[in-house]
């Protein structure tokens, strides 16, 4: 028993420390600096951020990037982004730098800025799509002109201590590393040029660092049992229970009640789970060769429209998805041998916007899966998802013993063996991964 507890603790501790997401083991945000030219007192670099996470995007109000200069560098100018503070530039007389802070904080510009302030892939208010949903929009870039810096690849010092908010906490960035220089093709693709020097920084996400509680929960039901297993109580923490709003409250008619806050703080509808998002999984029909599941996502946050939302589900039958109605679907196969995870997201201009809490605050889909006669079962909760993520954050599932059952057959021993096994596997993956 003590061993088990130690293993569990180690596993939680380690998996948090390395920010490891088993459903997206290579997911990260990479920040690349390409030095394009040396200047009399420094260099001009193009900074490109790529979101390589399959299903975790950066939503409004967007990313905030920070670092600490290694020497006394200043930013003469920026195109396609800006620092939030200029800092103390009183030492400068003729030309005043854009930023003199030792640890600049950079944000994207908003859409529609004047043409001369734009840069390719800039000016999206810091919003970045996930790689799985739209790789072309999973990128953000700006140009920075650095002064009082090294002027050759021998003397330049890499910036240190990178930080990334996306938009909240959760990301940890590694050190900048010099990598082979990026190659660029001219637009006619007939000439190749290369950066004078390139360095990369990799940032990874950990839900444990992002927030204390989950931000979504799962409820389940089935056609074969009237029981609706609701989300666990206080799944997302009940500290703010006194600040929630009842769905029939007169306050909801007040002007401005839906206006988002700068820090994205929620205004929740009162529920026993206190989650901004609930995912409902209903086993709807059992045909001879197929079965059908209905998925509904409900928003309980009056102050948030979820744009470009994503839903990730792990279920053993997702290797035989025959049809997904009214959502887009993409299988995710993080490990080539297991094909049990997939990503659902809204169709552009149809339901890629999950509206604020209220009558329109939900999106729904149905999934048709072909049965594998050796594995398909309505028993022991097999038909319910193993893991659910909304916008890249893991949702709390109800405990398996609360699942609607087909008959009164419990097999506790089997459950504990499989639990043991998955712990072992997780520890193995964490230690060796
Ligand atoms: C970052 O993600 C890319 C794409 O998935 C992957 O190739 C790369 O190895 C990752 N980098 C790290 C340091 O994990
Ligand atoms: C550096 O980052 C870019 C993406 O910005 C990526 O394509 C490249 O593979 C990275 N290089 C290394 C060595 O990680
Ligand atoms: C620096 O530039 C020299 C040539 O000017 C090159 O040989 C060397 O590999 C470069 N070093 C780095 C770290 O890019
Ligand atoms: C970077 O962060 C580490 C740990 O947080 C700190 O010890 C170090 O002084 C920082 N470096 C700079 C240059 O700020
Ligand atoms: C959500 O979007 C609708 C329509 O675009 C808009 O009227 C509403 O104000 C938005 N709500 C929030 C919380 O941003
Ligand atoms: C995974 O299953 C989906 C069907 O749900 C299929 O389209 C896809 O090709 C499979 N991928 C692999 C790697 O087997
Ligand atoms: C429905 O599921 C509940 C919870 O597992 C169980 O207690 C009940 O016996 C089931 N009812 C039927 C008719 O199978
Ligand atoms: C019944 C059926 O179509 N089974 C297929 C499910 O998916 C696996 C792997 O993707 C196939 O090998 C099966 O034939």
TrEMBL record:
Signal peptide coordinates: 1-19
An annotated GO cellular component: side of membrane
Compartments (UniProt record): Cell membrane
Family annotation (InterPro entries): COB_C, COBRA_pln
Gene Ontology BP terms: cellulose microfibril organization; plant-type cell wall cellulose biosynthetic process
Keyword terms: Glycoprotein, GPI-anchor, Lipoprotein, Membrane, Signal
Pfam family, one: COB_C
Stretches assigned to the COBRA C-terminal domain: 215-404
Keyword hit for Signal: yes
Chief place where the protein resides: membrane
Recorded superkingdom: Eukaryota
Family to which the UniProt record says this protein belongs: Belongs to the COBRA family.
Protein name per its UniProtKB record: COBRA-like protein
Source organism of the structure: Olea europaea subsp. europaea
């Amino acid at each position: 028993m003590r061993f088990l507890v130690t293993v569990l603790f180690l596993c939680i501790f380690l998996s948090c420390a390395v920010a490891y997401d088993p459903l997206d083991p290579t997911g990260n945000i990479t920040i690349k600096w390409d030095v394009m030219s040396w200047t009399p007192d420094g260099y001009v670099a193009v900074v490109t951020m790529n979101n390589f996470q399959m299903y975790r995007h950066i939503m409004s109000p967007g990313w905030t990037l920070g670092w600490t200069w290694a020497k006394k560098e200043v930013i003469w100018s920026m195109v396609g982004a800006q620092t939030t503070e200029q800092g103390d530039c009183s030492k400068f007389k003729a030309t005043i730098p854009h930023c003199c802070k030792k640890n600049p904080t950079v944000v994207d510009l908003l859409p529609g800025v004047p043409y001369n302030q734009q840069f390719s892939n800039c000016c999206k208010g810091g919003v970045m799509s996930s790689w799985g949903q739209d790789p072309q929009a999973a990128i953000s870039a700006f140009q920075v002109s650095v002064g009082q810096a090294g002027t050759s690849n021998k003397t330049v010092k890499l910036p240190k201590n990178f930080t990334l908010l996306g938009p909240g906490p959760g990301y940890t960035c590694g050190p900048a590393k010099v990598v082979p220089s990026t190659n660029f093709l001219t637009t006619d693709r007939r000439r190749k040029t290369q950066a004078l020097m390139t360095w990369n920084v990799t940032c990874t996400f950990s839900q444990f660092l992002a927030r204390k509680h989950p931000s979504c929960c799962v409820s389940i039901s089935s056609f074969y049992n009237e029981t609706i297993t609701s989300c666990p109580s206080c799944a997302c923490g009940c500290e703010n229970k006194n600040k929630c709003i009842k769905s029939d409250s007169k306050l909801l008619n007040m002007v401005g009640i839906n206006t988002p806050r700068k820090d994205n703080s929620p205004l929740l509808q009162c529920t026993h789970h206190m989650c901004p998002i609930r995912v409902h999984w209903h086993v709807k029909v059992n045909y001879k060769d197929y079965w059908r599941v209905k998925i509904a996502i409900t928003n309980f946050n009056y102050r948030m429209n979820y744009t470009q939302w994503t839903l990730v589900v792990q279920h053993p039958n997702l290797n035989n998805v025959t049809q997904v109605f009214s959502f887009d679907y993409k299988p995710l196969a993080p490990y080539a041998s297991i094909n049990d995870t997939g990503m659902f997201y809204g169709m552009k201009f149809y339901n890629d916007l999950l509206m604020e809490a209220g009558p329109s605050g939900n999106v729904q889909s149905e999934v048709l899966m072909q049965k594998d006669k050796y594995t398909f079962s309505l028993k022991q909760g097999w038909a319910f998802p193993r893991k659910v993520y909304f916008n890249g954050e893991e949702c709390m599932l109800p405990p398996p013993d609360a699942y609607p059952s087909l008959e009164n057959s419990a097999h506790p021993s089997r459950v504990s063996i499989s639990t043991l096994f998955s712990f072992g596997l997780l520890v193995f993956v964490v230690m060796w991964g």
